[in-house]
Design the sequence.
């Protein structure tokens, strides 16, 4: 639990307050792009270094920034902060019923000090993107089912079986916190601009045609 025994880091707390203020009334923070060192650093475990008031403001600002980007997840490193926390949220759309990516309702979560491990050996390969690698997407193989573990903003421990697209989101954001970008293990020949993905490959959620035409294996 993050509580009375947690020691607030006053210097860090001031820095985070300054960061939050850069978002202005709109609460929109600039998103760090690939090449910034913070995206490649192992984050520090969150152990109550921020006051609860500052933590709550940070979470809300990250959520607004994520939604407006738009995205389905945002890690602290993506706003230049080396703490092990992220926000995630995704909702099922009308056209998701038969989508092989297995989208599912994934309500808003704050995930602090997250980790995961695969359940079984099944994987799926789909195009995915990243707000810190703006304008591009590539095919990335990920575990289909995982055991996800994290703490919430109150320090309460959670463990949940995630499947399909929510599992992918959780893996993506957790990887950010250990300095990994999705492109590190993506099929590099699949890399496409968002415009080309829309023009050539968006009608094929399982990227079989892209694999054949661009020369990569699923």
Sequence:
């Amino acid at each position: 639990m993050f509580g009375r025994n947690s020691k607030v880091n006053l210097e860090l707390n001031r820095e985070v307050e300054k960061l939050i203020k850069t978002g202005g009334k709109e609460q929109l923070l600039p998103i760090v792009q690939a090449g910034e060192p913070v995206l490649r650093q192992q984050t520090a475990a969150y152990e109550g270094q921020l006051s609860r008031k500052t933590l709550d403001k940070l979470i809300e600002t990250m959520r607004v920034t994520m939604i407006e980007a738009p995205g389905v997840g945002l890690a602290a490193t993506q706003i230049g902060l080396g703490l092990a926390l992220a926000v995630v949220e995704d909702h099922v759309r009308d056209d998701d019923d038969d989508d092989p990516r297995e989208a599912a309702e994934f309500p808003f979560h704050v995930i602090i000090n997250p980790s995961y491990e695969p359940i079984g050996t099944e994987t799926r390969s789909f195009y995915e993107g990243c707000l810190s690698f703006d304008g591009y997407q590539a095919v990335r193989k990920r575990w289909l089912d995982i055991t996800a573990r994290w703490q919430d903003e109150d320090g309460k421990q959670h463990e949940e079986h995630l499947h399909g697209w929510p599992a992918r989101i959780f893996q993506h954001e957790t990887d950010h916190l250990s300095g990994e970008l999705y492109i590190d293990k993506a099929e590099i020949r699949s890399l496409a601009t968002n415009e080309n993905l829309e023009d050539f490959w968006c009608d094929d959620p399982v990227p079989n045609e892209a694999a054949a035409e661009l020369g990569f294996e699923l």
